[in-house]
Amino acid sequence: MKTLKESFKSLPKWTQILLFALLAVFGITFFGFIFGYIIMWLWNRLMPEIFGLTTITYWQGIGLFILARILLGSFGSDNSNKSESKKIKKVAHASADPDWVRYNAWWEKEGKEAFEHYTNDEE
Q1: Is the pTM higher than 0.85?
Q2: pLDDT class of 55 with cuts at 50, 70, 90
Q3: Same-domain pairing of 20 and 67
Q4: 64 and 13: one domain?
């Protein structure tokens, strides 16, 4: 008997992509509804008592969730990889900078020796 994974891999590529897309849409919708309910529940339990605000509806909770995502962060993108690649590009670009070329030449000629002398003096 085939496992589910083997059955999925035997499907044509376009069918696999379509199933992944449908699953993603379902998952995003499901978690959106869950977060809307959680936000509504937390707001209605905390805000009226703490700050004297009115309660909100489910759709207002969804709206608050979307507003918070817009104001406080993007919708699920992780920018850490992008910032790392920008740092790498800056370093690669810096090596072509004439000042860095002079620094690298100085380091090869005098810098290593001066650093070793400095570290040996501390011991």
Answers
A1: no
A2: very high
A3: yes
A4: yes
